[in-house]
Amino acid sequence: MNQEYIEIELEEEPIELCKLLKVLDLVEGGGQAKNLITEGYVGVNHEICTIKRKKLYSGDILEFDGEHFQLTLSETAIPAERSAPSTQPEPQKNTEQAANAPAKAKRKRVKKPKVDEKTGRRPISFG
Q: pLDDT digits over 38-58, tens only?
């Protein structure tokens, strides 16, 4: 599949997806960018991306409105280190221990009086 890419040169990386759409004037504002991302109109690296603040680096491909943009890093910019995805499996809970463990005590809520007995007024809560 032969596609034409529009090259976008980044001065610094990473850049958030919603900010990149704004900088490229592909959207009118940040709110519109976030809505389009969550509705699935934006692709990153040939997959639909719904993460508004996804970090994009040089080499990534942005797909929007039928156009493909390839991100590159300017010669004066210093490349950022990408955060490596976690390869460690998440620890699984032992079902036997969970079944035998006592249930946590729920915090009991104390009902406050609706009307003060002395003044006949409702109490004011500031937080």
A: 999 999 999 999 998 999 988
